[in-house]
Amino acid sequence: MDFSSAPEPVHFASRIAELHQKGLSPNGMFGFPVPTVLGKLERTVIWEKSWAKSFTHHLRDVIKYDNEANGSWPEYDAACKQLIDVVVPRLLGALQSDGREIRPTLIHGDLWERNIGTDKQTCRVVLFDPGCVYAHNEMEFGTWRCSWAVYLNSPIYTRLYQHHIEPSEPAAEWDDRNRLYSIHPYLNDSAGHPGSLSRQMAYNDMLYLCEKYGPLDSLEKYSPEKDVSMTGAYVPFVMKQLE
After folding, report:
1. Closest CA to 51 of 136, 169, 132
2. pLDDT at residue 4 tops 90
3. Which long-range contacts link 192-195 to residues 24+ away (Cβ below 8 Å)?
4. Among 148, 205, 198, 204, which Cα is nearest to 178's?
5. CA-CA distance, 107 to 30, in Å (whole number)?
6. How confident is the model over 148-174, as pLDDT tens digits?
7. Residue 188: strand, helix, or coil
8. Helix axes 74-82, 198-213, angle to 10 degrees
9. pTM surpassing 0.85?
10. Which residues sit opposite 31 in a β-bridge?
11. What is the pLDDT of residue 236?
């Protein structure tokens, strides 16, 4: 198994699209039959018809996990509340309003470079260590935006995937949804590595989304200088053995 090089983009994108096209929810709802985990985090996977409600469970899980590991931070807590109360219903609710629909699909759930290998004999991509859930397919790509992404942050992978599955409508809000979905892996990483930069990066993304979809004068201001999608900064992921 080769873990040292990036997967061939065309084949890799087609395999991820195949997973999302064939892995359909058994009851047409978001969730999963049994709890799944990401590191130490156990997902809340109760069945929901609303994707906004389902993602709110995921978000509450990582916020709680992060607060337990890093302690309370009033400004951060206020941004989390506004994100859950206003931004998520607006940004994700739009996917299932005005006649629009999305299909719950099986996602890997923890798709980043160290969970991807290439079989040296067949040259086929191998995915492992999943945290599966039936979700909006675009949630899969939140990790690709994070500061530790090495090659999956290249637009080529997303563009090739979108040849198979187009962005959900409103397509113009794809990048904002991707920013929202990246908050989940950032906070999971923050909880697993207390004191890391991931919490600050997630917080800054929250401020961006709140300013755009749920302005609140009492919140701090978003800083472009701290936004890795603007600066291109790379922060290596630090592996920590689970206790």
Report:
1. 136
2. no
3. 192/39, 192/40, 192/69, 192/240, 193/238, 193/240, 194/69, 194/70, 195/70
4. 205
5. 11
6. 998 999 999 999 999 999 999 999 999
7. helix
8. 50
9. yes
10. 134
11. 61
